[in-house]
Write the structure tokens for this entry.
Amino acid sequence: MALLERVSTLLRANVNDLLSRAEDPEKLARQLMLDMENQLVQVKTQVAIAIADQHLLSKKKAEQDELRAQWVRKAEVAVAKGQDDLARAALERSLSHQRMGEGLAQQLADQTAETDTLRAAYQRLQQKLTETQARVDLMVAQMRRSRAVEKAGTAQAMLQSGATQGRLSRLSGKAEDAESKSAASRAMLAIASAESLDERFETMERNDKIEELLLELKQRQPRLT
């Protein structure tokens, strides 16, 4: 995801090195913080969108599960009344909703993984922003103090400047990478067409499954009455 790649680039930036080489360190520091804040807002928006998509998929899957259960109940009623053909038709509808539910379950799993990735990236970026803000504040203060010491032109000032630069060097480091991947899979469920022979076998297997379910319903029938 391009957004997370930009975030990762910001987090990998060596703030100390950038500021030490900048003509106007304070201006660069302000721009760096602004960029990180903007990226944080964008990641937060994407997290909200991902959560909404996750809830929608969960709702759709629950609907398919309920429809499947309804058709199974109708098949049971048909069996109780001796309407085997009607029971078979109801069982076929239940299998159709079961397949759609399974497809939605896979999409939901993918969406959940994407949501977790975005949420984790947001939390890391938020923490890094806080740490970087404190680091930038400290470095800007040290740079101002260093410039003041250099203008004084005394040996003591030079020593203080060296100590300041030493502290700045110890503060430098690379931020951890915010690795991310998007495993979003939002394609709507579609049934691929099969060649004639495959389709015949699929129909045969489906009919066998329906007959098996019908037999199970009949075997349970005494307990339904």
